[in-house]
Amino acid sequence: MPYTEEYQNLTQEELHKRVVAAREKLGTKVFILGHYYQQDDVVQYADVQGDSYALAKQGAANNEADRIVFCGVHFMAEVSDILKREGQTVYMPDPEAGCPLADMADGDQVRNAWQRLEAAGIADDVVPMTYVNSTADLKAFCGKHGGTVCTSSSAGLAFDWAFKQKPKIFFFPDENLGRNTAHAKGIKNDDIAEWDPTERDGGLSEKQLQKARVIVWKGYCHVHTFFTMDHVKAAREKYPDCKIVVHPECEAAIVDAADGNGSTSFLVDYVKNAPDNSTVVVGTEINLVSRLVHMFPEKKVVPLARSLCPNMFKTSLRDLCYLLENWPEDQIVRVPEYIAKDAKLALERMLVLK
User: Fold this and answer.
1) Is the CA virtual torsion 271, 274, 276, 280 positive or negative?
2) If DSSP states are collapsed to H, E and C, what string results for 316-343?
3) Which of 46, 95, 273, 293 is 20–30 Å from 39 (CA)?
């Protein structure tokens, strides 16, 4: 982000002092949300840390703050804006911090795919479902077409709910979470079709679409597809008694080879509850794994490999300081009402999943 010379020349120590001073001045009128993958310099000033959807809910539930600062990536701040209570404004320290996974499916692509499902005569049998790591436009699409949103922790419940509604699911934009969740429900690869948005008609024949119980969008998180079976093998050899836990955005082979898989909160809780002196190898973003090492020194916490999310890394202490002192209009995140209305409907369907 462009800064005045004043901000460019501030040392880390000066930035820390000014952030503390700004926080004290604003008091409870500002509420800072920090995603687990943020840098330590930033996340230490968060009022709460967590996964994206949980943070958005906590922001909306705060009855004192009228300014929500979301230290994360853009789709997360969008969710926060959709769920916010009246009178709240959502800001991002770096509005250009995006998510490549969320960008792998846009509204026009999904609408074109849906037209293909209609032409194949199966759209009426399909529940559209989007991972929370997606644009507000995709959430609105799901809201408008009887679908829902899911998180990595609620994906299984969302699949159960969807199959009670209709016989098929169209899941986007993360192929691996969709495929891993389908596998957990006993659905074999023969009943899963991959929609490739770069191919004509998704690269699928009408017969393949009609046969599939789950259609997964060809999209992925580069942080979690970085992990390989060689990483798993190396960890097993170096730490024979270790437990390996990974995020379900990893490829199916990695998930199958691990001792457990789940959301970021699941990974944190797994390490927290592991016996003292045990070794836990964690396959997720390196900033979180490094933090877990310091949080639980009585355990040996090891990264499966060093995988950094550069988009989460974009948000710096300098960004946070500048925002808290200036509150520029261009750092406000606003989802248009016509999109927010349907997107909120899809999010509300997720709230009642049991």
Assistant:
1) negative
2) CHHHHHHHHHHCCHHHECCCCHHHHHHH
3) 273
Task: Find the radius of gyration of the CA atoms of the chain.
Answer: 21
Residue type at 306 in one-letter notation: R
Specify the CATH class of 229-308 in words.
alpha beta
Neighbours of 164 (CB within 10 A): 8
d(CA 130, CA 215) in angstroms, rounded, equals 12
User: Which strand (E) or helix (H) includes residue 23?
Assistant: helix 12-26
For the domain bounded by 5-98+312-335, which CATH number is listed? 3.40.50.10800
Distances (CA, A) of 79 to 9, 137, 184, 189, 333: 34, 11, 27, 32, 10
pLDDT score for 1: 64
Length reported for the chain = 354
pLDDT tens track for 96-113? 999 999 999 999 999 999
The topology (CATH level 3) of 102-221 is Rossmann fold (3.40.50)
Q: Say if pTM beats, i.e. exceeds, 0.90.
A: yes
CB atoms within 10 A of CB 211: 14
Rounded to whole angstroms, the Cα distance separating 4 from 157 reads 49
Cα distance between residue 35 and residue 73, in whole Å:
9
pLDDT one-digit tens code per residue, 133-182 = 999 999 999 999 999 999 999 999 999 999 999 999 999 999 999 999 99
